[in-house]
Amino acid sequence: MNIAESFVGIAEQFGDRTGIIEAKSGKAVTFAELNSRSDGYCTYFVAQGIVPGDVVILMVTPSIEFICLTLALFKLGAPIVLIDPGMGYKNLLRCIERVEPKVLIGIPKALAFAKIFQKPFHTVKKYFCCGNSFGILGPDICTCVAATDNPTAVHQPGQDDLAAIIFTTGSTGPPKGVRYEHGVFSAQLQFIRDYYGIGPADVDQPAFPLFALFSAALGACSVIPDMDATRPARVDPEKFVASIKRYQVTYSFGSPTIWNVVSRYCLKNRIILKSIRKVLMAGAPVPGDLLQRVTAILPPEAAIFTPYGATESLPVASISGHEILTDTWEESRQGRGTCVGRALPGISLQIMAISDNPVPELHPDMLLKPGEIGEIIVRGDVVTKAYQNNPEETCLAKICEGDTFWHRMGDVGYLDASGRLWFCGRRAHRLETATGPLYTIPCEAIINEHPDVNRSALVGIKGKDDCCLPVILIELHKDTHIDKKQVLTEVKTLSEGSNLTKGIKLFLIHKGFPVDIRHNAKIFREELARWAQKKIFPQQ
Description:
Helix content: 25-40%
Oligomer: single chain
CATH superfamily of the largest domain: ANL, N-terminal domain
CATH architecture of the largest domain: 3-Layer(aba) Sandwich
Number of domains: 4
Radius of gyration: 24 Å
Low-confidence stretches: none
Mean pLDDT: 94
Distance between the termini: 57 Å
């Protein structure tokens, strides 16, 4: 099902209700206005020669226009390409060239970027400017395209019709374009509605712009926060909280990084977010102390959830903050990994023996027993089938089993006796040492117990005999004034007290870890490993 069709039904039922609000400008539109404006865009694009199947890069900032354009393209059946602009221009250009777009709709800066770097855009035949460029880059479609009362026929997709291409964060390699068929979006919409209970009674403040589309299709009003979505760690908590209070937001889905900033601000100013009923945090492991802080700023009846998934498959498992704090967090502190909950309805989860090579078929002898750490594989309606124009990565990520397939999450973990999934880190980040494998999340949990450690990162470097040497890098809290040598001494003592980390002998303090641009939480360990290599073996 095309979720634009769900939205049209919502617009017919709740047309006079407010659908989208821009927190920064205060501008708002009803569901009926959103529908008629998207119909206007759809009619305009059809007249300009865009047809179903034409791949469109959408480079527009989070706004009412972004949602209108997204709905219009869904109605038209033109797949949308969404790329985080903060990934750096080299990655950005590589991503654009890979998807071979035919259309670019963007703000003036994006169109100027395309004019400067023409080669990756060589397949683009049509350009549309969303903003005032004084006519240099064409007319501003935001002002020249009018809403219409003539409804557009919504594209009826086939089972494999592409709806969007969304790029991964690139935390373990170059970003990859994930093919989202309409069926995947439809399955995600069902989870948000049925499992998390989001509907017309809710007001959403999504930190991920595309999630406003899901809220609109469910009849929930969306408040687009006054923040740079590509830099969640720099969110202004005063503005984020002000819009929650002003518009009585009931639900918010965002990175743990955002809620880290917001919770500290609220606790400092003794603020309780009385209207909030649900908070979802995803994109990186959520520590117990963050859950405790967020719980403290919400009313007693509010619930926190930490869905687990990836760009290729989201969500596949979920757990409540209450269950983590009462049942699993103490085990996580002892290095047993991060519990991410049970498989969602209709999702299958398995743990198989770790492999860095393609796995053409799944055989029973590959599967591990509860408690054994291996590679996490998933199957279900929210699991995407392939990467765009990238058969090598598709081959590496998918495993056939009869008429269906499994997706390799790229993560390692295990299932406990009750069927809960525990996350232990990325497959690419594990270290194969002379004394056995080391996994990032369990080892780092031991080091993170030090009160002056903000976070830590396990990386591997090459020793003089080319063996893998484990190194723990430490990022201190910004307000710590303790002597760095003393911290290192105390951290080494912590490490020696655990069977997981007692073999690690190398420790370094780093001024600030590089992180992904989407969540500002996933650590770029490859970059840290190169830095550590130079620090410890400068002559190599």
